[in-house]
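chain below, 123 aa
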Amino acid sequence: QVQLVESGGGLVQPGGTLRLSCAASRFTLDSYTIGWFRQAPGKEREGVSCISSRDGSTYYADSVKGRFTISRDNAKNTVYLQMNSLKPEDTAVYYCAARRFGYGLRPGAYDYWGQGTQVTVSS
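prediction:
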């Protein structure tokens, strides 16, 4: 069974950094578009960033553009989300997800999901 496992979350002060990892088992990530999503309490799940399987194109939500960077390490079968200049409003559970076809940040288009990792930005 396809499995995605996120790691790297934690508690960080405003302005701090974290790097999230999304590791895959039983499939190769570079054949899928990988997206990062987040969900804060009482809010809908929102797309943060994605990276295309076809050409490595990346896309970012306006709220994280210039602060977050998505990347892929095919040798490790892992996708990363580098998060800099973190703000309290970035606090959420972060999920990675995979879709076999297409590109974009519509949650319903993704086929596989990880269990999530908590990110808390607070002083």
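The chain has a mean pLDDT of 95. The first strand starts at residue 3 and ends at 7.
thats it, cya
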